[in-house]
Input
Amino acid sequence: MQVTVDGRKAALVAIDIQNKFYTVTEGLRRSVDAHMDMMNRALDLFHDTGSPVILVFYDAMNSCTSDAMDDPEALVEGLRAHESDARVHKESMNSFHGTDLLDRIRESGAECVVLMGLVAHMCVLSTYFAAYDAGLSAFMLEGALSATDEENVAHVEAICRTVDIDSLRESAE
Output
């Protein structure tokens, strides 16, 4: 049982769901809180089916990050990540640039990626387009993107290919 999209094995890539972004603006915090359930539903589905999960961490601190929490590098509390999830560290918006993300995806046997995380119109969108440059199909998971305001989430979902959790669940049955 594997999660697939259009018949292709999928890897879930969770981008920058870290405290350092969660505390940047009140809008981003509200957005993460509003979408955490969908992020966790996706993580649960991929974990339960043995499908690959890759967590991406942004290592730099800059004007787009905050150290307002005790551990800015940590995942946002409540995210149901597993210790066995692959981890990739990056220093730019594009999660493929200067990282081993593509190698991790290929090693897992995945042929496409389902993206979730934050910030939708920045790092997630950059990674979406870079996936195509790397020869992968990419999909945004509806309801699992966060941004400084919900209009940005809607814009990203409007211009990108999306997939919903029900379709992912049905593909794994």
